[in-house]
Amino acid sequence: MSKVNFFDIHPSGVLINELRKSDEVWIATAFLSSNDFLRRCLTSQVKVRLVFGLKFPTHPNVVRDLLEYSKSSQSKVFYRREPKFHPKVYLFFKNQKPTCAVIGSSNCTQPGLTSNDEYNVVLRAQLGQVKTDLDQFIKSGHVLTRSLLKPYEVSYYKAASARPPAAGWPSTAANHYTWGQKIWSEIGKELEPRWMKESGRFPYWKDLPFTYVFDHFCHSLIGGSGEMNKSGGFPKLSTNGSTERGEYFLEFMRNYLPLGKESPGCRSEQYRLSEIIASASVAKLSDAAVRSFFLCLHSIASGADHGKAKRAVNDKVNGKHLRELIERLIDEDQPIQTRITLALTDPDQGGYRIKYLGKSAIQEIPGWLLPELYPIVNDKFFNTLKHLGFKPPSGQHH
User: Fold this and answer.
1) Domains of the chain, each with CATH number or no CATH
2) 44-58, 67-81, 258-272: lowest mean pLDDT where?
């Protein structure tokens, strides 16, 4: 039998088969939902050590089942609440010796184990390191207790995407954001190749993501201080044709994109911070670095309420809370609509809004930190789309 087996099939059958041959299993998973493998774990004689993320979308009913199970067995259930907790590891034992590990992309959820496109590996050798690492994951968790159930139910149902539309879920801002993201993606297919052909002329811009260049385009076209705006800008597009949009962008690059060394401004610093986050983690950012990131957001640097926002970032908001907000907004395990809505929802309503950080600030963050996936969204972004001939769907006017 191969010591390492790669597979991209649904892993439920593999896990159930290993469970039949084992007398103990350790599991670390970011999310949980009811599924056949978990039910077999809870109803068999196999000893279970489990650590999971106690956060949306893990359903309260699953938490309740785990509480009942841990009360009547020798197994142990632990939880973690940090957004960065993302393991998907399953380790099986026989006679206290590890025999098999399944590691990959599959959370212990019904879609993760049976229907999603996932990729996992099965290891049958050198399992000592897996055991040591998984033991640390488990020990870092907190014991699941009944006192947690009611508060978690309240926060879950306030945050769940099944919340009735009358309650404002998802928010209008989130719906408008996803519309803008879709249009930006379409425009990027037209304009990014043009930028790649011209970018060599701009030594201090050429290494920045296209998202950052498009952000400068928006501020040049629409912004009160933009050179294109000072010169009268361009007339509104007469058609919705990609040729005209392309000519707009070429004119911007050739005549209005600065060549000076300092021209990218805060964009260079934001990109540096995004690279740190991509290669390490938000938790490694110092308070000074995370505050610098927020102070460079357009809405905080120069927005309508920028004075209050600057004071909040500098003096009132704990650096830890700013890092947690970033972690949640770039957590790709939740839809972007959910992340935007929760970031604009007060904590007593199940969200994690920070006072003085409004819609524009929140909507900018994903684009600065995940520029390959999201645009830098603010009023100038939406006004640029409008100027280029795009209108949001009915009921989503900015």
Assistant:
1) 4-160 (3.30.870.10), 172-387 (no CATH)
2) 258-272
